[in-house]
Amino acid sequence: MSDTTSVVIAGAGPNGLMLACELSLAGIRPVVLEKLPERSEENRANGLVGRIVRMLDRRGLHQRLAGEIGPPAPGYVFGAMRLDLTLIEENPVNILPVPQRRLAAMLEERALELGVEIRRGHALAGLAQDADGVTLEVAGPAGSYRQRTGYLVGADGGTSVTRKLSGIDFPGFTRDSSVSRTANVSVPGSLIDPATGGLAVPGRGVIPPFFHYRTDQGLFVYAPLPTGTLVTAVEWDGIDDGSPLTFDELRESTQRVLGADIPYGPPAGEGPHLLRRLAGGNTRIAEKFRDGRVLLVGDAAHVHSGIGGPGLNLGMQDAIGLGWKLAAHIHGWAPPGLLDTYEAERRPVAERVVMHTQAQSALIAPGVEVTALRELFGELLRLPGTVQHLADLMSGADIRYDMGAEEPHPLTGRWATDIPAGLTATARPLLLDSTGSLAEELAGWRDRVDVVTAPTTGATAVLMRPDCYVAWATSAPEPGEGERKALRAALERWFGDPLDA
User: Are 451 and 433 in contact (CB under 8 A)?
Assistant: First the structure.
């Protein structure tokens, strides 16, 4: 078996499938290689938080999982401390509690609708780059074969074969001191607080649902998800002997963390049910996200603590940020250097996620000094400005890309918030113009940029990239030549030369 395709994606997890959908919307049909013969039923995550929730809504995908998008969450956690999001005016923390296996199934269904070819049981085994493309060695069910592609994208996780075969370094550090035990369980109804739905623990009071509860011995989470109750017990100096986790072991770990015995029982329903032990953790960012015609997204490019649930928010937005740029490059209209802006934009975001997950890990560590720090930090969390800052950080609402504008509008470089979801389902660049006077400026770009006459918030006209970040904006009721010139410059910077050039 040997053929040629524009893009091969290694990995059919949420990040790889999201990228496949984005490329397909842009007219590129990738091939997805997945080493597992069937879709994994393991839940590595149990929900989405932050901008990615609204991006799924923008693409018409939220409805497939949970219907219409709801209001932002009234509260969240940072470093096992409660964030009261009712204190802030602009709440960016949207939450979508959905098992990862269901998310992956939905994205696979959508990718197949868009014409993506997914090859299960096909593992990347080797690669060689040249000036015109990449030749892959693939181990498939019927034997090994070569696959030729213009670009290879590694979406194959923290142990990425793509990254290793490309020789891209993965610097960072490994923490070996903690052990986390997580399982689906049943809990006696007598321990469920009827007022809050929390877990009533003798000697501790009520532990709120979905809250990270820290003690000097470890961390405990009680999460009554729609798909079943999930509990996690983390010990700072735990032991992993390599044997399968048991309910008795989880119960003993919980008793050491909380100082109380919780009589767990087996979970209800058919499953699959989670029963997992993880020792330590890695914090690493790839030396580079692109090596010629090989690119990395998601965990293949960066790994970090899962505290606060930032992983899919980061990785799936990597895919959305890369998809339209790679498609533009393949179609031939990408301006010079467009593909290099993928890493320039996404690496700083990964670095901020690493920063705040490390900060949260420090806040949950053992020791009387940490307890004192948490007391002080708790005072700061009563200040609306602090809560707003952390809410923006956790959700990704603080991201602002450099759009190269000489005198940028306050919205330039930021994610466009108040845009009707139906306008962005096609993943095309969009000029939203409430003045009705700017369509003529797009004459040379109408093959790749849509224009809609509609009201906007915070501006009279907004030029959006496919990832919904604002490339140009104006508040002028009647845009003059200066605004029009800046619009044309933004069009050329992000969407290439006009047709008549």
Answer: yes
CB–CB of 318/18 below 8 Å?
Answer: no
Nearest residue to 285 via CA among 301, 306, 296: 301
Task: Tell me the C-alpha distance between 66 and 15, whole Å.
Answer: 19
Q: Taking the complete model, does pTM exceed 0.90, yes or no?
A: yes
Please tell me the distance from the alpha carbon of residue 334 to that of residue 340, in angstroms, as a whole number.
11
Residuewise pLDDT in 10s, the chain (501 residues): 446 799 999 999 999 999 999 999 999 999 999 999 998 777 677 889 999 999 999 999 999 999 999 999 999 999 999 999 999 999 999 999 998 999 999 999 999 999 999 999 999 999 999 999 999 999 999 999 999 999 999 999 999 999 999 999 999 988 777 899 999 999 999 999 999 999 999 999 999 998 889 998 899 999 998 878 999 999 988 777 778 888 899 999 999 999 999 998 888 877 778 888 988 888 999 999 999 999 999 999 999 998 888 999 999 999 999 999 999 999 999 999 999 999 999 999 999 999 999 999 999 998 899 999 999 999 999 999 999 999 999 999 999 999 999 889 999 999 999 888 789 999 999 999 999 999 999 999 999 999 999 888 899 999 999 999 999 999 999 999 999 999 999 999 999 999 975
Inter-axis angle of helices 311-331 and 51-58, to 10 degrees? 40
Q: Which residues contact 102 (CB under 8 A, 6 or more apart)?
A: 65
DSSP conformational letter for 186: B
Interstrand relation of 172-184 and 290-291 (parallel, antiparallel or unpaired): unpaired
